[in-house]
């Protein structure tokens, strides 16, 4: 395997090519003329190509030298970008947080309790009922409905989540279910398994199902912290024991030591463990 070319030698090459002489390049870089000459010779040897025509009038580029200029110029732009990034100081780190529809809704409604623009991290809230792969870093933090079992994941319990049926009144007896190809959550699967004979309408997602329930079309099954907050709906059943579960904050073992992720974990823990915001049903 050939040794990689030193980037600083390529930068010096561009300077010599631009000025046309070692002395002019030396004046701009502070590197002595003899050292500059040795490094250009070493670069030619490493490439196995002649880059300059050396003469009394200076260093003129050969055809291969001109080709190298074209290939090396993007390095200058990259270096300038890195210098700008360094001079700008530490930027705000984005932390990707994934959760189900209603937990994402809850976090979004309460985000100002735990985050402000002055924070060193910014949340990217990714609502998805399909868990993104934390091992492959598709997300940094997941809010899940079960304790992680993989060795590379760390978990922190936050709350007990209860579910119940909601409608505009107890007189509504039919149910709104998710379309079969959308029914992936425990609540959607429970409706399919236990109320299929009483389904009056299908919906593409739970937010549409709630809108239908508000029109009195049927009942929906929701986490109590969400259903209790929807104006116009009331709880019309006891909590559904089969759907009760613990909520877990989950992250990759290595990622949790990253300061922005750690800050986000602590902030989310503060929010999700606040029982006053999500009281359990009596």
From TrEMBL:
Q: Pfam families in the record, alphabetically? A: HTH_1 (PF00126)
Instruction: Output the InterPro entries linked to this UniProt entry.
Output: LysR-type_TF_proteobact-type (IPR058163), LysR_HTH_N (IPR000847), WH-like_DNA-bd_sf (IPR036388), WH_DNA-bd_sf (IPR036390)
The record's listing under Gene3D superfamilies reads: Winged helix-like DNA-binding domain superfamily/Winged helix DNA-binding domain
Q: Which GO terms describe its biological process?
A: DNA-templated transcription
Q: Which residues form the HTH lysR-type domain?
A: 5-62
One GO term in the molecular function aspect is: DNA-binding transcription factor activity
Q: Which domain of life is it from?
A: Bacteria
Instruction: Spell out the family assignment given in the record's similarity comment.
Output: Belongs to the LysR transcriptional regulatory family.
State what protein this is by name: Transcriptional regulator, LysR family
């Amino acid at each position: 395997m050939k040794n990689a070319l030193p980037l600083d030698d390529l930068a010096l090459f561009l300077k010599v090519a631009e000025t046309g002489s070692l002395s002019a390049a030396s004046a701009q870089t502070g590197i002595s003329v003899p050292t500059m000459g040795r490094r250009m010779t070493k670069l030619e040897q490493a490439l196995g190509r002649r880059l300059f025509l050396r003469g009394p009038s200076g260093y003129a580029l050969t055809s291969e030298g001109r080709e190298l200029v074209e290939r090396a110029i993007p390095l200058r732009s990259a270096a300038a970008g890195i210098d700008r990034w360094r001079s700008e100081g530490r930027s705000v780190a984005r932390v990707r947080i994934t959760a189900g529809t209603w937990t994402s809704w809850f976090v979004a409604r309460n985000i100002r309790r735990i985050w402000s623009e002055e924070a060193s991290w910014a949340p990217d809230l990714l609502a998805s009922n399909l868990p993104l792969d934390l091992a492959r870093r598709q997300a940094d933090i997941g809010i899940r409905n079960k304790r992680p079992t993989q060795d590379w994941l760390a978990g922190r319990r936050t709350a007990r989540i209860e579910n119940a049926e909601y409608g505009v009144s107890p007189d509504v007896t039919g149910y709104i279910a998710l379309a079969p190809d959308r029914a992936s959550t425990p609540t959607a699967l429970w409706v399919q398994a236990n109320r299929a004979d009483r389904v009056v309408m299908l919906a593409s997602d739970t937010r549409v199902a709630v809108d239908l329930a508000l029109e009195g079309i049927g009942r929906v099954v929701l986490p109590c912290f969400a259903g209790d907050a929807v104006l116009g709906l009331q709880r019309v059943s006891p909590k559904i024991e089969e759907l009760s579960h613990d909520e877990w904050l989950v992250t990759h073992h290595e990622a949790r030591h990253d300061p922005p992720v750690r800050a986000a974990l602590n902030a989310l823990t503060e929010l999700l463990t606040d029982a006053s915001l999500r009281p359990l049903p009596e």
